[in-house]
Amino acid sequence: MGSQDQQADYQYGTEAVTGPPFGFDEQKAQEGARLLLEAVGRNPNEASVYETWNRRVPAMLETLTEGMRPEAKPAMRTFDTETSGLVVKTGIPLHSMCEHHMLPFQGVAHVAYHPGESMVGLSKIVRYVRWQARCLTTQEELTRDIAAGLDDELDAEGVLVELTATHACEAMRGVETASTTTTRESVGEVSDTDREQFRGSIRQDGAGAIGY
């Protein structure tokens, strides 16, 4: 059987879905974690790892995939716009998981937006980024999702997002070298002046580097 046929066997139906097809399944998470322990030669019934597959891994996965469940999205309460300028929030801690290797990538997110008729508190942006990041994804896709999601949530005139992260799948395997990757995305009307102000805010706060 070819790789494409194998891939097809694992595909879900083509109908549109919102979030994972079956939500979070604790029993399947337990079974999967147990099988992984067996695959690497550990006895799942050992006292030292019994709670690993029975409780800890499922609970961890449920938390780290909250971004795949719309009901976990933080409330984005807005208020009337108080400025005509760019709203910038830099240095937002970022933790997510690579969908290719199921290993973490972490770093910082920077967000800016031109509000329309309403705006949101800066703490809400932090919570929104954290929620979006809690899923199996790629850094490129996550950058797009945050930008598009905030644009939709805030009905903003324009949104800018920049992520800088290190990837465990590079540091622990493959090239085995820790390096940083930066991705950028914009949505809506964003001028060159907006981009320069955004980059200036990142430089000013020293938030472009990862403090790990």
Short characterization:
It contains seven helices and seven strands; from the N terminus they run αααββββαβαβαβα.
Provide an overview of this structure.
By secondary structure, the chain is α+β, with helices and mostly antiparallel strands. It has 2 domains: 3-71, no CATH class; 77-205, GTP cyclohydrolase I, C-terminal domain/NADPH-dependent 7-cyano-7-deazaguanine reductase, N-terminal domain (GTP Cyclohydrolase I, domain 2), CATH 3.30.1130. The protein is built from 7 helices and 7 strands, in the order H-H-H-E-E-E-E-H-E-H-E-H-E-H. The chain has helices spanning 3-9, 26-39, 47-64, 122-133, 139-154, 168-171, 192-205; strands at residues 78-80, 87-98, 104-114, 118-120, 136-137, 158-167, 180-188. A hairpin with a 5-residue loop joins strand 2 (87-98) and strand 3 (104-114). Helix 2 crosses helix 3 (47-64) and helix 4 packs across helix 5. The longest helix is centred in the first third of the chain and has 18 residues, at 47-64. The chain is elongated and about 60 Å long. 24% of the residues are buried.
